Each structure stands twice: as C-alpha cells, then as structure tokens.
Write a sequence for this structure.
C-alpha cells in the first residue's frame, strides 16, 4: 500500500533586533545568565511592555518578501501558562490578528520543478527564558537573558508532501530571512527553530490523518530524519491496526527517534485574551510602502537575473543565489574579472569545496572576492593557465600576498614565447622516436602523451593552445 | 480644627512661616500618635522623609522649587518605590523591596515632595472596605468602627486624619472615589491614560488609573500638575501633554449643563445621600448651572461586566506571583507544582483567590465568548451611553456611593452586596472617564458620629480640567471639604 506524508512546519525565527521585543534589554547571545534581564523581563510588579518598532518592521519586511497580506491592525494577546522560565506567567503573542497573514513561497523540488507552498500566517511573539537542570544540586536554574527576545513564528500550510520538501521549504525560509537581514537563522544556536506537524494518509485520500507535532528539531538534517522517522512510525502503527494519537513528540537526534512528550488531548487551555497593556498596532499604506522600498532583491529574482544576465545554468544560478553573501561574492568576482561563467565555476567549484572542507561560511572565506577576481583575471589574460590557477589558489591560502606576487615569486607565469615552446616541442619529439612513429602510423591517442611530456618539461607553464598547435604541426612533419 | 490644604501649606512654606522639616516632623509625630488606631500606613519612611524635607528646604532657599516642594505625601502601597517595601497589601509581597520607582513616585520626587510612607490598601486593590489587606483593616477617622472604603483606604484615612497632606491612590472600579466619599475628602480618578501606570502594580490593566487623594479640588489640581502627562514607558498613556490644571480652576459655571442619571436616583440610593445630592445641585444652580436628567440605560450591567473583565485581567496579571523570582515562596516545596500551589494558596488572601478563580473561569475555553466577549460588548454599550449623554451635558453629577461608610466586618460574608456598593463608580472606569468625589454633606450614625457623604462629578474624556474647575467652584461656595474628624 502507498502512503503519502503530509507536513506543515511552524518555524520560530529569532528577530535580530538590538533590544528585546517589549523592553530595552540587550539581546546579545552568550552573556552570563540573567545579566540581560531588566525589570520587565523579570516580570517585576508594575512593569509594562513597549513594542520594539524594529521587530514590527522586520515582520512586515518578511511578510512582503513572501507576498503576504499585512495585518493593518494587529493585536497582541496573552497566552497564559505557568512555567519558571516564563516570568509573567503568560507569553505575549498574536492569536487572532497577526502582523503577517496569508502568503507563499516557492521551493525547488529534487527533479528541478517548482512548487508553491502556502504560508498561513506569521505572528510576532516574545521568547521564554531557559531552564537549566544541571549543576544546581537538585534545583533548576533559570536564565532569563533570552526571555522577551522577539520571535516571528511562521506557520506553513500542510502542503509539504515529503521530508525533502520540508527541508527545501526550511532552506528557502532560511535563505529569505538571511537575505532580509532579519535573523542570522542559526539553528544550532536556536535563532531558527522548527516544529513539524506530521500525518500520513493513503495515497489519493482527501482527508488528513491524525497529526503529531515534533518539537526540538535543530538542524536541516534532523528535520529530514525526524519527519522520515515519524512518518514511518505512523505508517507502521496504522498497518499494525493501531491509531495515531494527536500529541507532541520530541525528536531525539542521538537515537534518531521521536518520543511522546505530552498528549494534546490533555493540553493546556491557554486562555488567550487581548494584552491590555498594549494598543493594537495599526499599519498604514505609507508604512508598508516604505518597508517595501527597502526590500533587497530576493533569491528567486536573483536566480532569474543570474540566468538571463550571465547566462548561467539554472543550477549554478540557484546555488549562487541561495545566500545573499554568496551572490554578492560571486557578482564582485565577476565584475572584477569580467567573466561571469568562469567566476561561477570557481565560486561553486574550488571555493565552495574549500569552504565545505573547512566548514566555513562565505563571509569567512580565506580568499576574498578581490583576490579571486584577480586570479581569474590572470587566467583570462593568459598570464596563467587554469591548471596553474589551482596552484596559485592553494598558494593564496593563509596569507594576503597578491595574486601577481605569488605568480611572480613562484615562477608560475605561463610561457607564451613561441620560440621557447618550439624548443620544448623539438626536444620532446627528439627524445621519443618510438611514440613519434606510432603517432605517424595513425595512433592519434599518443598525442596526449606528447602534450603531457611537453607540459611536464615546462613545469606546467606552457601556453596549452600554443603548445597544441606547435606539436600538431611538428608531428605531422 | 481646620484642615491644612496643600495649597495653604505651600503658601506657608513660601512665606517662610514653617519649614518643610518642621512640617514633616509634625506629620511624623501625628503618624506616631495615631497610626496605631487607623492602621493607615504599612510602612513609614521616616529617614527618607527627613532627608527629603531637608533637601526641599534647601531647594526653596535656592528658589528652585515648585508648589509641592517640601509638602509631605503618602503613596498607596501599590506604587513601586525603589529600595522601599512595596507590598500591595499582600502577604505575597510582604518582603518585596522594589528595585525601581513608579513614574508617579519619580515625578513627586522630582517635584520635591516629601514621602512619609506607604499606605494600607485592599490586597492587590481588590476590595471596597480595606478589610482584605494582609496588614489588617484600616479604620475610618470619622468613626473607627467603620471602614474607610477601599481599595485606597489607607490613603483616604491618612488624608482625613491629617496623617499626610496629600496621598496617591489608584482606582479600578471606584478605589479612589469611594474611600474619598467615606472619609469626607476629595478623590480624583482621571481619564484612563492620563497618568502613567508604570510602576503601579497591576490589578486590571484596562481599568487601573492613578489619581490624587487630598483635601480639595485645588489640591487635586496641584497634584495632577505633577502626576499627569505622557510617559514612553506606558503604551496606554496618552501622548498629548497635560494642561496646567490650576489655570482653569476659577472659570465660571455660568451656563454649565449638568446631567443627573435617572438610574442613579432609583432604588438602592440612601435617603441622606440623595438629600445631599439635591442640595449640591441647588448650589450648582445658584452658580449658573442648569440641571437635567440623563439616561445611562446600561449602567445596571456595569457591575456584572466589571466582575468579568477585571478578574479576567487580574488572573493573568497575578500569574507572575509564583514564588520563583521574588516575593513569598512556600516553605520546602516538594516539586515545582507543589511550589506553585502552596505559594499561591498561602500567599494570596481569599478575595484575591476568588477573583483569580472567576477570571480564570471567564477566560476558559468554552466560556470566553459567553463571559469575556459579552462583558466587552456591555463595556462598549456603557461607553456609548456616556458618549450620548455628553452630547447634551457638560458634566454628569450623582452620588459616589449609595450609602455612607459601613461597619468593619458588616459585609464580609457577602461579596456580591459589597460589589454592588460600587454601582455608581464602576461604569466610569469601564468608559475610561474622569470622575471626582467631593464631600457634599453628612449623616449622623446611630452612635452620634457624623459620617461624610460624597458626590461624584464625571466629565467627558480628558476633560480633567473642567471637572476640577467645577469641583473647585463648588468648594469655593461650600465648606464640606474643610470639615475634619476629631482625631
């Protein structure tokens, strides 16, 4: 029997505001516990919230980037529950009137086709603090540095149909928020967190199955693994005659399994009601247009432009446009060297391989765009060959020497003096009479042998085209 | 004995007839002598008061003073005051020393007022008699067998017994005006949003409003000049600057249109209170005002709507008192749930727990629409009734309370009867309007004691200056506000 997986994602993005959502406390990550908690964050009696305009601005920016309806009048609500890391005993969130309404984004499937995924809503809310259960001899510690940090919770429609689609959606979301500069999207540090609602149904069925919510998934890889595992668990359960229970499950990456956290059937009644300490947020057309004017070129538009402007393949354009920093890097290189195609090959090839190997982001690249552009420029003007360029590239790591200095000091400059190349060719022909005879007897393959010998004799520096032409004419005799 | 109003004390200080230090020592002596009986203060900040008085005298000597510089003041213990115990009348906060100042406190400090201490109040401002305080009931200076009203009962008693020159209060459903009426003094609740709520411990956020408790409308204007105005720390505080409330106090009442709600003259109103009201209306007519009846058809629903909205907001506002970060925590909790349950069961009194339960219920799934949403709809209707009435009149005048002060313990077993005593004040909070209670008569208790009667003047939104002007003109032509109990 064939099964279909139905997935909806709830993604919490920590907005990169300088201060918290409702207080002036700093949001810097990693400060000593409770040093970034002011009187409001500690829920001191008598304290009141004041909305951080920057957070609203970022939410609207996101909304416009995913073509969403912007709530002209959004309302904050109190979501009531008791937990020690929730100082007020309620979380200020948006229930009925979120700042961002219905929108959508486009993902690329494995076969290259595009699919539009609906976004139900995105609402602004405050984060809780952290409970620390170790190192306190039977007590729990509470760190309220994170309490009150601005979050944007982005809820997708249940329109994702596989773990791969879910990952593609998440990566696209990640790319967009990074483009917008509203969050660093660092999943390991928790600035982007993902909960997945997963259900299965028989292929062709129209009703949704009972869903479970998987919490605590903190990497792209785990999103895929958690969903795959959970879908299979549900299928096995149903095929064995069981029934899926609506519940919250926790993903355990170490064991690669999900396990039950709490049943939704006995879930909290959060007793939402409008937060009386805050006024409704009214957004007018002028505000929306001002934010729209600040929107950068987004990944889809950039990819399309790369294809049309630079004649790149869809794939290369997609890779380069996936991150704003990568795209900017590529365009800098292309502008400096004047060859977009070659630049794309280098950025997605040697440079990407280097970054992957050292686990670095493009922003931390040991070779900046100026130097890579200069290197490719020297290939273009035939100072060095593509092959020698790889040697130069290696030599550029770990120092700030200019490309030209490296070529000069290591004597890597290409030999284009036809007299010198002719001398090389003559020597190679003279030294290998057997192979000459074979070639002349019609064994064309031996030609590569002569190229290899001549290149070796020039220590790779001979201009390949000149060498090719000379060898050809001399061998033909 | 004649009352010393803030205005008079300020003039005495100006003329150098008395220093702030002498005045402060005098008030501190009165507190030492009489507070044991009235229980008006929870905390007396003697050292602070003396230091502030000296500083005020120095400021006056340098000519850097305002009218309130050096005037002794008491704050309701709902206002956070840095490094001072701030209890909100609760065991829950009996050990809580606030780490910051409320805006109201900050502004009186900046004005150079002298803080004598923090006054007693109903626990978390939930009560109409000041009997729910963890620190014991407050006694009415006119008759210590009787309550001073609540929740700002300590502030009202302190002003009435002259244990301070002026005091701050807060009013969620009548908590400034009702005790002012019971204690024969002047109590003003401005429009919602006119005074910052920052640092004022929340009971019901959409209704809570700070205001002056003092001896005259003129004193209230002097206090409003310090308290009112925008505050970027309170999003619900209006951004428009507050006017100088002193400049309009003497405006004429010629042509003033007074509305008297017919619902306020219906059954339930005590005969003595009604007589005092009618007499007061005659005074206003003699000053050139006209009186007509106005209709507030939904006023009878105000108490019911209030007792859904206020507890609903309170149930969330009081969630922070969980024993985790500050305040009371139960002894040796077995686990987290045990800590929550026992901390809150032991730390809150019964009236507070009753309202948390009611509010939690009203917000619960399945009841939200029937209670919370319905109550908000009624609130809108009540506001619309007032809006309509103010198309025809400039001010609405009626009784503040149906009766004079009741006896300590008299209504303890029947919360609903107690709630219904707030029938004239609650609608004003639901509509967010400014309302003042001023003394306008007295009744004689069976024991021969004289008991004050208050009337309420309600203005349109942000018409504080007009309300104070009307009250002041009444006080220029009557002397009820100057009567003082035998202390």
């Amino acid at each position: 029997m064939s099964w279909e997986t139905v997935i909806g994602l709830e993604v919490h993005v920590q907005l990169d505001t300088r201060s918290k959502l409702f207080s002036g406390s700093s949001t810097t990550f990693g400060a000593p516990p409770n040093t970034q908690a002011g009187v409001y964050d500690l829920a001191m009696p008598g304290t009141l919230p004041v909305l951080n305009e920057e957070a609203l601005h970022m939410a609207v920016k996101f909304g416009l980037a995913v073509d969403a309806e912007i709530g002209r009048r959004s309302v904050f609500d109190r979501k009531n529950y008791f937990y020690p890391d929730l100082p007020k005993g309620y979380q200020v969130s948006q229930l009925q009137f979120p700042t961002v309404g219905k929108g959508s984004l486009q993902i690329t499937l494995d076969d290259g086709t595009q699919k539009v995924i609906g976004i139900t809503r995105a609402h602004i809310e405050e984060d809780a603090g952290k409970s620390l259960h170790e190192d306190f001899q039977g007590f729990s510690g509470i760190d309220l540095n994170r309490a009150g940090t601005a979050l944007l919770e982005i809820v997708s429609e249940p329109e994702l149909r596989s773990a791969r689609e879910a990952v593609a959606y998440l990566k696209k979301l990640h790319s967009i928020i990074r483009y917008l500069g509203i969050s660093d999207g660092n999943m390991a540090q928790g600035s982007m967190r993902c909960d997945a609602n997963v259900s299965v149904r028989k292929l062709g069925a129209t009703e949704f199955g009972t869903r479970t919510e998987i919490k605590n998934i903190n990497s792209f890889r785990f999103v895929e693994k958690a969903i795959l595992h959970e879908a299979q668990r549900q299928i096995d359960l149903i095929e064995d005659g069981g029934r899926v229970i609506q519940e919250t499950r926790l993903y355990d990456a170490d064991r690669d399994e999900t396990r039950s956290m709490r049943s939704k059937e006995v879930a909290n009644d959060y007793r939402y009601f409008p937060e009386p300490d805050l006024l409704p947020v009214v957004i007018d057309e002028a505000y929306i247009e001002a934010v729209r004017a600040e929107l950068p070129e987004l990944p889809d538009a950039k990819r399309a432009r790369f294809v049309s402007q630079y004649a790149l393949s869809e794939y290369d354009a997609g890779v380069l446009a996936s991150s704003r920093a990568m795209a900017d890097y590529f365009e800098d290189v292309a502008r400096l060297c004047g060859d977009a195609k070659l630049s794309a090959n280098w950025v997605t090839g040697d440079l990407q391989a280097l970054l992957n190997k050292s686990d670095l982001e493009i922003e931390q690249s040991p070779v900046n765009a100026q130097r890579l552009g200069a290197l490719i420029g020297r290939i273009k003007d035939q100072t060095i060959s593509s092959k020698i360029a790889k040697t130069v590239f290696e030599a550029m790591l770990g120092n700030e020497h200019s490309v030209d200095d490296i070529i000069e000091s290591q004597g890597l400059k290409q030999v284009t003096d036809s007299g010198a190349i002719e001398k090389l060719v003559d020597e190679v022909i003279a030294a290998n009479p057997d192979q000459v005879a074979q070639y002349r007897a019609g064994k064309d393959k031996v030609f590569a042998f002569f190229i290899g010998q001549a290149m070796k004799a020039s220590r790779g520096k001979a201009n390949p085209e000149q060498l090719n032409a000379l060898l050809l004419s001399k061998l033909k005799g | 004995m004649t009352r010393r109003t803030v205005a008079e004390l300020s003039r005495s200080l100006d003329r150098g007839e008395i220093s702030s230090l002498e005045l402060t020592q005098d008030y501190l002596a009165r507190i030492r002598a009489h507070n044991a009986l009235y229980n008006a203060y929870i905390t007396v900040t003697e050292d602070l008061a003396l230091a502030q008085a000296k500083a005020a005298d120095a400021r006056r000597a340098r000519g850097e003073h305002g009218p309130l510089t050096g005037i002794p003041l008491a704050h309701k213990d709902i206002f956070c005051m840095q490094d001072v115990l701030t209890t909100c009348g609760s065991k829950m906060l009996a050990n809580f020393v606030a780490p910051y100042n409320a805006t109201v406190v900050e502004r009186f400090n900046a004005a150079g007022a002298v803080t004598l201490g923090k006054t007693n109040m109903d626990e978390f401002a939930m009560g109409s008699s000041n009997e729910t305080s963890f620190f014991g009931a407050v006694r009415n200076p006119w008759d210590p067998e009787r309550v001073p009203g609540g929740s700002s009962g300590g502030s009202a008693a302190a002003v009435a017994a002259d244990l301070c020159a002026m005091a701050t209060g807060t009013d969620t459903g009548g908590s400034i005006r009702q005790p002012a009426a019971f204690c024969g003094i002047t109590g003003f609740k401005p429009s919602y949003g006119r005074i910052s709520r920052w640092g004022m411990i929340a009971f019901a956020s959409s209704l809570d409003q700070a205001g002056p408790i003092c001896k005259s409308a003129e004193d209230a204007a002097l206090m409003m000049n310090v308290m009112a105005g925008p505050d970027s720390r309170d999003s619900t505080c209006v951004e428009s600057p507050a006017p100088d409330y002193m400049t309009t106090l003497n405006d004429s009442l010629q042509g003033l249109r007074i509305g008297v709600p017919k619902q306020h003259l219906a059954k339930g109103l005590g005969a003595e209170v009604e007589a005092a009201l009618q007499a007061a209306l005659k005074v206003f007519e003699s000053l050139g005002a006209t009186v007509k009846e106005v209709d507030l058809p939904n006023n009878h629903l105000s108490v019911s709507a209030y007792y859904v909205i206020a507890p609903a907001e309170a149930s969330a506002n009081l969630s922070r008192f969980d024993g985790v970060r500050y305040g009371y925590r139960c002894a040796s909790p077995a686990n987290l749930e045990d800590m929550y349950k026992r901390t809150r069961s032991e730390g809150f009194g019964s009236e507070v727990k009753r309202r948390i339960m009611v509010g939690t219920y009203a917000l619960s799934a399945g009841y939200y629409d029937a209670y919370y949403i319905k109550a908000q709809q009624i609130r809108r209707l009540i506001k619309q009734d007032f809006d309509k009435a103010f198309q025809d009149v400039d001010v609405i005048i009626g009784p503040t309370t149906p009766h004079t002060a009741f006896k300590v313990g008299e209504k303890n077993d029947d919360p609903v009867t107690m709630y219904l005593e707030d029938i004239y004040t609650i609608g004003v909070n639901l509509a967010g309007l400014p309302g003042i209670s001023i003394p306008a008569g007295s009744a004689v208790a069976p024991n021969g004691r004289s008991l004050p009667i208050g009337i309420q003047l309600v203005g349109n939104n942000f018409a504080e200056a007009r309300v104070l002007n009307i009250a002041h003109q009444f006080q220029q032509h009557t002397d009820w506000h100057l009567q003082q109990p035998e202390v």
About this structure: Chain A has a mean pLDDT of 92.
